[in-house]
């Protein structure tokens, strides 16, 4: 049963299996185990980033395409929900319409970008997508009548998902059953389904062709696969999954703006997570996203302690300042590319 | 059997050599069509703008902006064209140059505030020199630590230089702080000169001079000196040049250092143009220079020059005519150029 759910792509490492089980159980029961707004927020963000990063891994880790336009699709999803909910008023139909509209737009856009530039080499594609993504971000912040500009959009969801909604008066096992609780489980199950779907895709024959293209696209072409078609499909699929992750983000935050879903910082975060977690393994996204967001939310407190302890030493305390946590992550990233190109998950699997 | 085979192939080889002079020589043939784009764009904009003095002002401003963009992009295209390394961390050297300029010009505030052109230019020159030195030295470190391990692997190059960019940006924040810092122009370089009715900012004139010097130096060194000959030969056939006794590795490290130093110089120019610097400027500028070198054709110095001028001109015309379009003008230009020539205006054929 579990093997079928995981598309026969088992963790293949005892340590990894334990870590993944802990993560999944922790996320599944987060409202009960970690009550409190901040920790629930972190858990929801981990779920959303797992989907987002896994979709990027489909592109980078499995097909070997470097794209910098991934946040564009993430943003389209978030704006789809946000714009539909502001225009049509809160309701399930506006959520559906927003998600559907966003997916269609992403589909068309990724197809156009894919056909336009996937024939070119990795470097060219990376540069073009970077330019396209920055143009899209400018567009989103300029069209303020539609997107709310830099301020973004605050919107309401159906009443059932509002924080004021109470499913039951009494808290169950320490969790209050309110709208936020329900929203969390919508995010959790959507993320779970989306992740398993992606796992299914990469372990299908189609996924194997993608890996063949990553390893040697010339040979893949020579065997008889039309690599352009496969690469375009990979691009489109990654875009659609990223869009759905964006929808989840908007549903969770009930807000969207350029900085929340479109900024280049998020693109760098995705890249860091994929590489550190493990390129070419969907589990890398789970491990990486969890570790990254926990570090982002809690490691900074630890670094503040370190910075205070070393206050007497001028440069070291500046290096340990909590605002500089990205520095250490960047170094970890470089070391990953250097020493374990398949990331932490790849390293764990190797041991077995 | 071997004997006969050499005999039969020999005449063919001779024939190929004989035929060679008849074929057009790629090196001496200049492709004029893209060069006409710059004046075409300039004159196409004239009727929309209407008044000639405004047009002159905008054109001069656009050309000067293009020159600055060329300086910041030239290093990147040089490194790519000669070493086949795309440095996504190039922006860090640009930001570094700008921040070094802040420190140097801050330290020489007596010179920058003095009302003497010579002293002002001296301070500017010192800032440029120090910025180039610092960027060059760090470029050598960057090449040694990050780039050398991933020669020939494009995917890893993109990833690792991106990581270098993240780390570099954070280190800049450690040294200079995360806030925006003003970088005012030296006293005598502020304001503009009048050319008839058209006002041209003084700093833009300096930018044009510096840009032309950089372009001329690059072209002359690459095409007219033995150093350039060796570099170009090394790109064509590395082993051959090595077996002639030249240390290609050292030469290529030199190219990387030169590219980084140019980025530092570009950072000084760009920082003074914007009159303030932020640690994130590397990432912002990266987008712009990528557009420019895509337009020009990856690795082509001439294409980069042309692309930068086109981007600069278009940004100024659209900024005057339709400010909202200006934000997208460079990307629209890139799409248009790629539809016309998918590899950029001057494709580098051996890549």
Automatic annotation (TrEMBL), chain A:
<dbReference type="InterPro" id="IPR001851">
    <property type="entry name" value="ABC_transp_permease"/>
</dbReference>
<feature type="transmembrane region" description="Helical">
    <location>
        <begin position="326"/>
        <end position="346"/>
    </location>
</feature>
<feature type="transmembrane region" description="Helical">
    <location>
        <begin position="236"/>
        <end position="255"/>
    </location>
</feature>
<dbReference type="GO" id="GO:0015658">
    <property type="term" value="F:branched-chain amino acid transmembrane transporter activity"/>
</dbReference>
<dbReference type="GO" id="GO:0005886">
    <property type="term" value="C:plasma membrane"/>
</dbReference>
<feature type="transmembrane region" description="Helical">
    <location>
        <begin position="302"/>
        <end position="320"/>
    </location>
</feature>
<feature type="transmembrane region" description="Helical">
    <location>
        <begin position="122"/>
        <end position="140"/>
    </location>
</feature>
<protein>
    <submittedName>
        <fullName>Branched-chain amino acid ABC transporter permease</fullName>
    </submittedName>
</protein>
<feature type="transmembrane region" description="Helical">
    <location>
        <begin position="15"/>
        <end position="34"/>
    </location>
</feature>
<dbReference type="InterPro" id="IPR043428">
    <property type="entry name" value="LivM-like"/>
</dbReference>
<keyword id="KW-1003">Cell membrane</keyword>
<feature type="transmembrane region" description="Helical">
    <location>
        <begin position="267"/>
        <end position="295"/>
    </location>
</feature>
<feature type="transmembrane region" description="Helical">
    <location>
        <begin position="66"/>
        <end position="86"/>
    </location>
</feature>
<keyword id="KW-1133">Transmembrane helix</keyword>
<keyword id="KW-0812">Transmembrane</keyword>
<keyword id="KW-0472">Membrane</keyword>
<dbReference type="Pfam" id="PF02653">
    <property type="entry name" value="BPD_transp_2"/>
</dbReference>
<feature type="transmembrane region" description="Helical">
    <location>
        <begin position="182"/>
        <end position="202"/>
    </location>
</feature>
<feature type="transmembrane region" description="Helical">
    <location>
        <begin position="92"/>
        <end position="115"/>
    </location>
</feature>
UniProtKB/TrEMBL annotation, chain B:
<feature type="transmembrane region" description="Helical">
    <location>
        <begin position="61"/>
        <end position="82"/>
    </location>
</feature>
<comment type="similarity">
    <text>Belongs to the binding-protein-dependent transport system permease family. LivHM subfamily.</text>
</comment>
<feature type="transmembrane region" description="Helical">
    <location>
        <begin position="88"/>
        <end position="107"/>
    </location>
</feature>
<protein>
    <submittedName>
        <fullName>Branched-chain amino acid ABC transporter permease</fullName>
    </submittedName>
</protein>
<feature type="transmembrane region" description="Helical">
    <location>
        <begin position="321"/>
        <end position="340"/>
    </location>
</feature>
<keyword id="KW-0812">Transmembrane</keyword>
<dbReference type="GO" id="GO:0005886">
    <property type="term" value="C:plasma membrane"/>
</dbReference>
<dbReference type="InterPro" id="IPR052157">
    <property type="entry name" value="BCAA_transport_permease"/>
</dbReference>
<keyword id="KW-1133">Transmembrane helix</keyword>
<keyword id="KW-0029">Amino-acid transport</keyword>
<feature type="transmembrane region" description="Helical">
    <location>
        <begin position="251"/>
        <end position="273"/>
    </location>
</feature>
<feature type="transmembrane region" description="Helical">
    <location>
        <begin position="285"/>
        <end position="314"/>
    </location>
</feature>
<dbReference type="GO" id="GO:0006865">
    <property type="term" value="P:amino acid transport"/>
</dbReference>
<dbReference type="GO" id="GO:0022857">
    <property type="term" value="F:transmembrane transporter activity"/>
</dbReference>
<dbReference type="InterPro" id="IPR001851">
    <property type="entry name" value="ABC_transp_permease"/>
</dbReference>
<feature type="transmembrane region" description="Helical">
    <location>
        <begin position="32"/>
        <end position="49"/>
    </location>
</feature>
<feature type="transmembrane region" description="Helical">
    <location>
        <begin position="119"/>
        <end position="142"/>
    </location>
</feature>
<keyword id="KW-1003">Cell membrane</keyword>
<dbReference type="Pfam" id="PF02653">
    <property type="entry name" value="BPD_transp_2"/>
</dbReference>
<keyword id="KW-0472">Membrane</keyword>
<keyword id="KW-0813">Transport</keyword>
<feature type="transmembrane region" description="Helical">
    <location>
        <begin position="203"/>
        <end position="222"/>
    </location>
</feature>
């Amino acid at each position: 049963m579990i093997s079928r759910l995981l598309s026969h792509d088992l963790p293949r490492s005892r340590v990894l299996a334990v870590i993944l089980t802990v993560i999944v159980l922790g996320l599944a029961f987060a409202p009960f185990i970690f009550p409190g707004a901040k920790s629930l927020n972190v858990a929801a963000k981990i779920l959303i980033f797992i989907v987002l990063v896994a979709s990027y891994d489909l592109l980078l880790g499995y097909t070997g395409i470097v794209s910098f336009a991934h946040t564009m699709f993430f943003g389209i999803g978030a704006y789809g929900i946000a714009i539909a909910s502001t225009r049509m008023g809160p309701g399930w139909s506006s959520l559906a319409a927003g998600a559907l509209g966003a997916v269609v737009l992403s589909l068309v856009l990724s197809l156009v970008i894919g056909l336009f530039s996937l024939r070119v080499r990795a470097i060219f594609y990376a540069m073009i997508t970077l330019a396209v993504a920055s143009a899209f971000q400018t567009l989103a912040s300029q069209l303020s009548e539609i997107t709310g500009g830099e301020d973004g959009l605050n919107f309401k969801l159906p009443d059932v998902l509002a924080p004021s909604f109470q499913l039951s008066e009494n808290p169950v096992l320490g969790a209050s059953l309110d709208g936020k609780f329900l929203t969390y489980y919508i995010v959790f199950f959507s993320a779970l389904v989306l992740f398993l779907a992606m796992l299914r895709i990469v372990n299908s024959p189609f996924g194997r062709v993608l890996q063949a293209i990553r390893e040697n696209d010339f040979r893949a072409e020579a065997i008889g696969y039309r690599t352009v078609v496969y690469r375009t499909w990979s691009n489109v699929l990654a875009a659609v999954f990223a869009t759905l992750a964006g929808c989840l983000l908007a549903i969770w935050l009930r807000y969207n703006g350029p900085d929340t879903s479109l900024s280049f910082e998020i693109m760098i975060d995705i890249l860091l997570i994929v590489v550190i977690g493990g390129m070419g393994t969907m589990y890398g996204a789970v491990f990486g996203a969890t570790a990254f967001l926990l570090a982002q939310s809690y490691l900074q407190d630890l670094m503040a302690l370190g910075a205070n302890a070393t206050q007497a030493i001028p440069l070291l305390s500046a290096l340990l300042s909590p605002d500089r946590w990205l520095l250490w992550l960047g170094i970890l990233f470089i070391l990953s590319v250097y020493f374990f190109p398949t990331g932490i998950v790849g390293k764990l699997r190797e041991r077995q | 059997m071997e004997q006969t085979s050499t005999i039969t192939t020999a005449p063919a080889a001779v024939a190929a050599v004989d035929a060679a002079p008849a074929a057009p020589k790629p090196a001496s043939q200049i492709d004029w069509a893209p060069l006409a784009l710059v004046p075409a764009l300039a004159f196409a904009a004239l009727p929309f703008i209407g008044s000639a003095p405004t047009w002159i002002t905008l054109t001069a401003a656009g050309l000067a902006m293009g020159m600055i963009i060329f300086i910041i992009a030239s290093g990147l295209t040089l490194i790519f064209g000669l070493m086949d390394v795309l440095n996504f961390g190039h922006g860090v050297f640009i930001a570094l140059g700008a921040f070094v300029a802040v420190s140097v010009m801050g330290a020489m505030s007596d010179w920058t505030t003095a009302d003497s052109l010579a002293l002002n230019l001296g301070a500017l020159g010192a800032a440029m020199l120090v910025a180039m030195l610092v960027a060059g030295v760090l470029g050598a470190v960057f090449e040694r630590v990050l780039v050398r391990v991933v020669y020939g692997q494009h995917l890893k190059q993109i990833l690792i230089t991106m990581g270098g960019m993240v780390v570099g940006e954070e280190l800049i924040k450690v040294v200079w702080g995360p806030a925006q810092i003003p970088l005012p122009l030296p006293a005598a370089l502020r304001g503009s000169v009048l050319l008839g009715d058209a006002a041209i900012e003084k700093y833009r004139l300096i930018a044009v001079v510096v840009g032309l010097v950089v372009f001329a130096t690059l072209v002359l060194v690459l095409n007219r000196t033995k150093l350039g000959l060796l570099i170009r030969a090394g790109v064509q056939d590395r082993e051959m040049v090595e077996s002639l006794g030249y240390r290609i590795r050292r030469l290529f490290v030199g190219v990387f250092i030169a590219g980084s130093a140019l980025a530092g110089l570009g950072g000084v120019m760009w920082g003074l143009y914007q009159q303030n610097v932020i640690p994130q400027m590397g990432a912002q500028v990266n987008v712009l220079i990528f557009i420019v070198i895509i337009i020009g054709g990856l690795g082509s110095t001439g294409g980069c020059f042309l692309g930068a001028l086109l981007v600069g001109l278009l940004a100024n015309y659209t900024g005057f005519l339709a400010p909202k379009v200006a934000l997208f003008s460079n990307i629209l230009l890139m799409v248009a150029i790629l539809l016309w020539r998918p590899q950029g205006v001057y494709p580098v054929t051996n890549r």
